């Protein structure tokens, strides 16, 4: 397999996952590109660190009383999952169906929503949208518990059309009203008590009570409705059915997928006014959506096997989100082989980089792209990557040292050291200018001796120094 | 899975009362990990809190089963008298209180009134060193048994931390352990260990020889999922906090299943105090259905417990008093449910 093939696979793993360790990349090389795509798409039996382990050592990740609760468990899952594409899809749906703690004020409900995304992330959109409509956190977030027969609240009905399925320009204000009518009665059980406790942020007397969906038939408007040109006594499931078959929905979901996995699109509010950067790609994905009865996995298969995805012009084009940055780095270090006290400190770094999982800035989600980079965030990102990857005691660092010793024996030139370190971090490709500076730094102490069995601290620090510089490079910020 | 009749029991234990409440500080618990009984019915409950909080959310709360509150001691940190990941708590024959810390790998010792006395523990895997000490308990000789969890063994120390003996090794065979948690002894000095990762309870002689095992993975009667704690009474009945199944099981002295409890919590005196003051919330609570019929997406009892307040959620520690009453500390509900012997 050529270097080009390895680079393509590394690109695939950065986009469809969180990057790859050297060992993971070797497995991809052995399988080949199409087989790797198939393997990534097979998320039928995902394995990550045991939930029991997380709950035992982090009880707050079990019953989740605090605003940030649930995020550590999410980070553990992303970092240890053998199905990284599934975890990326959870982030994908979370960024579209953005639901925030600031109003829901129930961390476990938000965590339950994320787990719901995981169950339905790769299936058909219809099922996912119905589950979303029944999700208690979403109901409260968009006030559907206040959507009554004869006194509708349009909030959920509007966002379902505007932000969650087809986007502005594909429906009318009357459609919004009819949509809202169809979702009357879709509420939560014990609504009064749960709303009050949420508003008061009440953990009393015995912690939080989970919410559950309740269908109030008496509060449901079962009258005739006209929605997107169809007429009937529609309930919520019927509305979702009609939404899913719209070409507008196909294009909207396709454009989101392109934005997340291929290259940045402008923010969603500009989509009605700015054409996609690659209309043919959107058309291809839309057709896959319609041909497969709205199957997300089928769309992804087309996307990852497409020329527009594989094209070198989009390699390293996307800025990693904070969650992708933190997860990718921690997967390389391998420190979450067991629960660790430091987990919540790692999760907090995402926040310092500008992303609070389960608390997006608004229902429009995270802007993404270059919006992740400002002066403060960039420093935080570089420092985090540099600190974590420069820690010589982690399993990942020890793996790098073993590789250097095994592959090179004797001494290692600065050029070779830089090559091995770039390779170790996921076969990263850097600009020539960056590379020559790395080699210059690596060569400051001359060749490095890697005679076994143990390297001295000075040597380990020299190696770690190169890794830290790579982690601080502009290329490392991108996927 | 739908909710069903939740109280299934023979006439052995019957529910008596609930003690405690969720509070971040002061009178209450915040992710309690373990409780211990001292003289005059005094209960010491250690709260781990969350890594995200600061200060005195991590603490030991002192109370009794009537709901009398005697104060708190301890706080978050690595200094004397502080905790990072407190896990187990035990009281010696002189009423001193011991707390294990599985992040700092040490045991801290306090007087009965909560004044710091000393700390000991060296991180490591050699004899006498500890790695993630979880459950602790005093044997009949007033020596301290420690579930040395990440070393997958049990060690015995004097009260001052001098190493005496060890038993166990990593694995799944008889006598081997996987992240052991709570442990206890009977009057003969036999040691019962909640062998968490192996979904069983193991009994060892006072010399550390394997004697018997009970349980095995499952949700059936007599089976366990990640048991966290074990208690043994004077008659030899064995009580297991079947943590992963969100229940408590009672076995006879031969390990045969006798009874399972799923929890029947009511308002404690502290809860009543809260609701008396917070009238709006109390009134809404009376109008709510706290035992709704729900269709769950899986059969994990963790989900059922999160919805239905009276059920055990995170039964993490068991202890018995001198009248044979069983106290079940719940990590996720921040309370203790008390059960009497029915006969």
Ends apart, CA distance between termini of chain B? 34 Å
Helix content of chain A: 55-70%
Overall SS class of chain B: mainly beta
The chain-level structural class of chain A is: mainly alpha
Oligomer: heterodimer
* Rg measurement of chain A, Å: 24 Å
**Largest interface by Cβ-Cβ < 8 Å:** A-B, 40 and 55 residues
Task: Give the CA-based shape of chain A.
Answer: globular
- Binned strand content of chain A: under 5%
Instruction: Give Rg of chain B in angstroms.
Output: 19 Å
Mean pLDDT of chain A: 94
Sheet with most strands: strand arrangement of chain A: 1-2
Number of continuous helical runs of chain A: 26
The largest sheet of chain B is: 4 strands, antiparallel
Q: Which residue ranges of chain A are poorly predicted, with pLDDT under 50 across at least 5 consecutive positions?
A: none
The DSSP helix count of chain B reads 3
What distance lies between the first and last C-alpha atoms of chain A, to the nearest angstrom?
22 Å
The helix content of chain B is under 10%
Q: Secondary-structure element order of chain B, as H and E? A: EEEEEEEEEEEEEEEEEEEEEEEHHHEEE
